Amino acid sequence: MRPFKLLVAFAVLLCIRPLVYAQQSPVSIINSKLEGKVVDERTGDPLPGAVVIIKSTTHAVSTDASGNFRFATGQKFPYVLIVSYIGYKKQEVVVNGGPVTVRLAENVNELSEIVVNDTYSSQSKKSYTGSAAIVKGATLENKPLSSPQLALQGQVAGLGVAVTSGQPGANVQVRLRGLGSTALSSNPLYVIDGMIVNAGDLSRLTSGINNSSNALAGLNADDIESYTVLKDASATSIYGSRGSNGVIIITTKKGKVGKAQVNLDAETGNTSTIPLPAAGQPLNADQFSTLFIEGLRNAGTYTPDQIAALAESYGFNSGKTTNWQDIIHRTGRQQQYNVSVRGGNENIKVFLSLGYFDQQATIIGSALKRVNGLLNVDQRISKNISVAAGLNVSNVNQLSPVGTTGSWANPVFAASILRPFQRAYNDDGSINSSSSSNTGFVAHYNPLWIAAYDKHTLSQTRALGNLNVNWHIWDQLRFSSYASIDYNVLEEIQFENPILGNSQSSNGSASNAYNRYFNWLLRNQLDYRFNFSKAQDFYLNLTAGYEAQKYSRYELRASGTGFPLTQPDLNALANAATPTLASGSSSGSTFNSVYFRGSSNYKNRYSLSATFRRDASSVFGLDNQYGNFWSIGGAWNIDGERFFENQPILSTAKFHTSFGTTGNAQGIGDYAAQPLASYGSNYGGGNGQNYNGVGNPDLQWEQQKKFDLGVDAGLFEDRLIFNVDYYHNNIYKLIQQVSISMTTGFANIPYANSGSMLNKGVELSVRGIPVKTKSFNWNASFNIAFNNNHVTDVGGNTSVINGNYYFQKGYDYYTYYTRLYAGVNPDNGEALWYTDGTRTKTINDYNKAARVPYKSATPKYFGGFSNTFYYKGIALNVDFYYNFGNYIVDGWSTRFYDGNYYTFNKYQRTYNNRWTTPGQVTDVPKYIAGGGSGGQNQSQAYSSRFLYKGDFIKLKNFTLGYDLKKLPYLQHSTAISKLYVYVRGTNLWTKTYDKKLPYDPESGTVTIPQFKTYTVGLNVGF
Amino acid sequence: MKKIYWSLLLPAIVLTACKKDFLRQQSATAVNASTAINTVNDLADAVNGMYTASKNSSLFGVNVPVLGDLLADNIFISSSNYGQLTSDNNYTFIATSGEANGIWLQGYNTILQANRIIAAPIASTPTVDQLKGEAYAIRALTYLTLVNYFAKPNTISPDADGVPIITIPTYETGPYIKPARNSVKEVYDRVITDLDSAFLILPNTPIAANIHATNSNYISKYAAKAIEARAFLYRGDYANAQAAALLVVTQGGYTLTTTASAFKSFWTSATATDGKVETIFELNNNTTGAVSGLADFFSQAGNGEMLCTKELYDLYTPTDLRKGLIVNGIRKGNGQPAFLVNKYPNASNPDKDEIKIIRYAEVLLTLAESYARTGDETSARNYLNQLATVRDPSFTGYVSSGQQLLDDIVNERRKELAFEGLRLFDLYRLNQVIYRPAQPYSYPGYPEVSLTDIRRLQPIPQNEVDVNPNIKQNPGY
Fold first, then answer.
1. Could you tell me the CATH number of the domain that includes residue A56?
2. Which residues of A touch B187 (CB under 8 A)?
3. How many domains does the structure of chain A reveal?
């Protein structure tokens, strides 16, 4: 019904059209000519690309490479020029004739200049009632990072970016203001140039963090104008049912009025291994054989002869050893090249770019290549109508190991468990593929062989296109229509060789998957601005819109086994002797929405806004498809008040607050609400239909009530800027898996509204210029976010055990639920655990110790600290990211500690600290091959012994650059507008706070680790 | 210019037109369960889905047949194993153990599949009757299995707690039902009623046209009757057991293999039988969708940790053909001597062994036992020896009477039906102590399951107790 009403509204507007059309365009007359130059107030450097507008007209030009501009206009002197340039204060200049020189001052005050564009409308930050952070794309360009989320790490208070894998192009976990959901996705919504895009890991053939993919890996950071992070209700409820986890809006670069600017960026270098912490280094050959023999002796069931025979068979006397860490690591390639053209005139503006990115991780078989192109065109069709179109096309080619986490085929896991006496190479130098002796690979695989002969690739091609039509029906009424498509094709190939590896027994296997994701969106919107005639600077903005979106996926899959044994290159699926799978399928979901927004502003001092959105989605039952989401917000700019002028410290100050609701449905199966009878349960060659989806017709949107109170303040003429936000987000109607009576035929309802959770916290950002002299500048920014998460209602759940975690009212969702380790009995080397949480009694039987809630995996606080130092054209960037208060668990403790898996290599700390003599006080028990007896056998099983402090500080980025335009003979060159060289290092330094920690706290164990990069780069502008 | 304005309106118009359907998205591989069965073809597909549900490894696919021998005295787990079912071998299972949970859940899932077939609003035709008859029989078989694992034997306490009887599909009851346990007697009543319904509507000659094959992979009229004979026997209703079994023997047309080679090839074959030889009903386990667990547990070509006890092996005479199904050999993992079960040899074959549910031999033994228990020992010996003399060509037949005859019949059941999961229920219904002497290269074990042992009943799964306040846990858990 609603769209019909909108349609009627449009029809009514059409009747008004002739009035508008009757206005005539003015005839072009030249009354004055003006020349001028725009320069930096402090340095006197010309500012190319500054925009100069004659006030009260639409006539604008931009400055050329030397900062010069010229006008030929119908206006008569005197008139007012408005001159603006990114990062500088806007200035108005009265001109009576030329030439003029306009000196712009650098600006650190974002409040007055920055515009928040949340796709549905643009508002100045000053009048904005929500909480949003804007990161300029320019600060994140040219970095050796494979996806845009990585660049955002540490940039925005409250935006947690967890780099869980060093695999180039891997999925990145992003959390805004804490965990937003339990069973559904907690990742924010991504919007690129108005399009709500597919994000996350779209690959189907893979699982696990080693080889996940990232749908946004095709984006080139150099193409991005800005990132806007929407946080609170006022900012996100316009996204209604998808706003709960926050929204990240990515806006690509558009054309600009002025002479075409060509930019060339090149960067090249290499990637380099970050060494494992001392605690986690594997044992060398001597250490391993010592420990192995000691373990056998301690087991007590081996005779000296048997031990000697085992030592011989495991190659301890062979004199031939392998350093597996060296085998799987390498120095990788890192390069990227980008070229862009940007220009335009009043009628047409164009941005065009091409980019190439190539990164090899430091682990063999892990790499990524990307090519991408972007074209954005803005075309003015008539006085009232303009069209904007964009096309972003990319291909990502990702190479990752076949095996994930605890698989032998995972090179990182393999290198940690393989014995130094297992041989990577045969005597003749060929790769060892023997699975018949203990110096070969009886149970394990040679990671070199796997890297050489197995194959796992993902080719992800994306086309993101949009078209936007803007029609100013009259000055105050605008109609816009927007259409976009997001087309993603993923081709995945996995091959496992027939000689050594996962598919040895089936003589090799291959799987191919083709997935096409198609997602379209249509949006029609009316904006009306009402100026209160009796009061100056008092207006009301009204917005009404209609949006529809459809997601669909089509999949083809095929697998086969049996490959030619001695033709390793013939790994195409067509060579399989036995086809094992052929499948094709499709699925889809739809959204339908109407939305309204009203905002009012009085003299830039008081703002009020209200939004309402009604969403419907096909994933819910027919009776529950609709959800209403709303918000109200207000802002007060105190600096507009008279009393504000009477104090000398604050230069700007603003309060803002909001309250409202948002929803979440990301991650629900497309048909989760329906009771389903699925085909595929075939029997005796006949089709089988099985009632295997319990469905839940009552399923509704998961909802959040968000409250936010924020203060933005500028001190000392805005040299120091604070942003503080307090938020309180109550998540209710939490969608969780709920157990039901199994007499229904089902153990649980996968998606049911049950329980609630709370996130509350404080965010602080500080930006400032601590030092500012004529030749030296220090710009610094710092942010920190504290979040407190806890479950407020467990709902229908009856079990407190949630895997490793404790699920109970009042506790953080990621509270560990674990046995408390009490160290080692000095008398006999047995592991001890506390019987319960009181820590009063210990016991030597793991199974008799109680699990208790203990510590949490959620960071207490995290953030970033960035510094830029300028000195006469030299710029030094130093960016830190830090994370404190969380504990991380070693999920593979059973393999790397103690003697249960005594044929595996161990962590150095196990070796150094193991109990050997009575009276020795340590926390590593006696090393017994095969493990101790009874409850001692579980000494390496999950307990507080394997919880480590996850605290770290990382030097994420270090860049030293020089602006060659400062050189005297280039200073006045008009041919070259920019010439900049730099050297950059990433991940150069990490500080951790737990000496027992055996791996990088950010990526965790047995995953592709992060690495350092060293690059040199060149930026040239013409 | 006008054209442009109009074109702007186009998207709005298009969207208005398609709105109704726009929010109704249908799966490409599934249909709405509540309206899934509308034609005979749908019904046949649902019947296939029901058989697939029943052969899940938690139910008849692996655990039901394996536990029926492992918890009894026919098999044990080698010390060289993969950690599966060791808590059952050692009698340490608890309310949160996976096996009880799996039988319970998959049992009710199979019942759910049957319930919706029986409830399908399709007018009766011979074909529809056949398909619904199969569903009645599978529902009865599943309830019979559940009540035997989770409740006291009807022969001892028919009024004890049985299992909840659910006959209405979940899409009608909603997912939040919390049923209490019906009595054992009520469950047996339901089983008999269902089997009577099945026998009544199943056609004499299975209808093949376009629905499915007519071999032993599908419930037939006399398969339903054979299951009913088992149900009556377990219930202790020997007159009815005798009548049902006799009907199968006289009307069913089933035969035993008559030669050593035929017997051997019957047990090596991985395919269903068309000729009514030996098997009355077995679950299909062919290449697509094969459940490998059964062969995997027993065959040394698979994991092979389930070994035959010495006591069972010693029961067979050297000339007994069935002794050929046990190999006095070497356990693969630890290299130690062991009695290896060779009844399911197709571990490495993509087409796995069919899962035997009920065989003609069992019907003969049921008939013999019910004759013996109703006073006709001549007939009892007759049917007992029909089997015993075929299995052991050198054997001239039993001549015993009284308790000895009954013991001989039960013993013959043990030898004939070993590794098919039925031994435990004989011990339960006859209320006998289970003796499980320690076996070499195994766990210390659990040598005696007394008549008062709480683990004679499987625990009601903790997950069920947690969400269903109306269900009563078995005592001791």
1. 2.60.40.1120
2. none
3. 1
